[in-house]
Design a protein that fits this description.
Strand content: 5-15%
Strand order of the largest sheet: 7-6-5-8-9
Distance between the termini: 33 Å
CATH class of the largest domain: Alpha Beta
Order of helices and strands: HHEHEHEHEHEHEEHEHHEH
CATH architecture of the largest domain: 3-Layer(aba) Sandwich
Helix content: 25-40%
Number of domains: 2
Shape: globular
Bound molecules: N-carbamoyl-L-aspartate
Largest sheet: 5 strands, parallel
């Protein structure tokens, strides 16, 4: 790689995993997101363009990136996988290089392959913003989750967090387990044995044993598209053994909150009637997602907050 190339790679503000950001930078982005929530807008990006490439379905991530782009006066260049040349066999790299060549300034990408971005961040000169890579990472979800937790508790230090459910298939769990530990939270995992993932470095606990002491119960969606749950549990069995039931929520401590990245399988991970419970931050997480993604776009496109 020549010097000019490595210089531009270094300067490109990819956002593919929170692992590569310092804690100062992460805290700065949390505070920036909360300032946007108070109505404090950064300088606008009139004339800048972003393409949102979703190779997996999405409601929240895609629409909140689009909303954040509008708030920042960024123009979206519409990209639809099903009518693109991907259907003619064009590779992800060639697709992204094409968008770079026509002048797109940043790419938001969701793709089913974990780590899809490795080749892209080496070779592209425009930022890649990871909207989720298979069972790998989901850094923009993680940032909005951090914003939601920080907004509530004003700290991460010493918070008791339980990440519950389909850990092994969850990019949300992988991103959050790592960053919450770095920020000083006590993080445990509650999951069936077959969905446990040792590589996250969490202690495995029973939900019923930690319920009363947790500040944050973070539920995960059962990833039906990545495995077949019916082989292991019925929905009712899962809800009874691992889900947040009405009985369990009554045992949570005052001030504790419930999170879920959504979409929710009602009455599986959480009783349907609890989704809008006083303790639930599920919809506020979505609201915060817009502000978190504004901070991500602002960083990628070189703005000052
Ligand atoms: C998450 C995702 O797609 O990984 N959803 C989201 O982005 N809000 C979680 C999930 O689908 O389980």
């Amino acid at each position: 790689m020549n010097t000019t190339q490595s210089k531009s790679v270094q300067e490109t503000k990819h956002f593919v995993s929170l692992e590569s950001l310092s804690l100062e930078e992460i805290m700065g982005m949390i505070e920036e997101s909360l300032r946007y929530k108070q109505g404090d807008l950064p300088p606008l990006f009139n004339g800048k363009t972003v393409a949102n490439l979703f190779f997996e379905n999405s409601t929240r991530t895609k629409n909140s990136f689009q909303m954040a782009e509008r708030h920042l006066s960024i123009q979206e260049i519409p990209f639809d996988v099903t009518t693109s040349s991907v259907t003619k066999g064009e590779t992800l790299y060639d697709t992204c290089k094409t968008l770079e060549a026509i002048g797109v300034n940043a790419l938001v990408i969701r793709h089913p392959e974990a780590g899809y971005y490795h080749e892209l961040v080496e070779k592209l000169n425009i930022p890649v913003l990871n909207g989720g890579d298979g069972s790998g990472e989901h850094p923009s979800q993680s940032l909005l989750d951090l914003v939601t937790i920080f907004e509530e508790f004003k700290t991460f230090q010493g918070l008791n967090v339980a990440i519950c459910g389909d850990l092994v298939h969850s990019r949300v769990a992988r991103s959050n387990a790592s960053v919450l530990k770095r920020l000083g939270a006590n993080v445990v995992g509650c999951s069936p044995e077959s969905w446990w993932d040792d590589s996250m470095g969490l202690e495995r606990k029973e939900l019923d044993d930690v319920l009363a002491t947790c500040d944050v119960i973070m539920l995960l969606r059962v990833q039906h598209e990545r495995h077949i749950m019916g082989d292991i549990f019925s929905k009712e069995e899962y809800h009874e053994r691992y889900g947040l039931t009405v009985e369990r929520v009554a045992k949570m401590k005052d001030g504790a909150i419930i999170m879920h990245p959504a979409p929710v399988n009602r009455d599986v991970e959480i009783a349907g009637c609890l989704i809008e419970h006083d303790k639930s931050r599920i919809f506020p997480q979505m609201t915060n997602g817009v502000y978190a993604r504004m901070a991500i776009l602002n960083r990628a496109l070189g703005g000052q907050s």
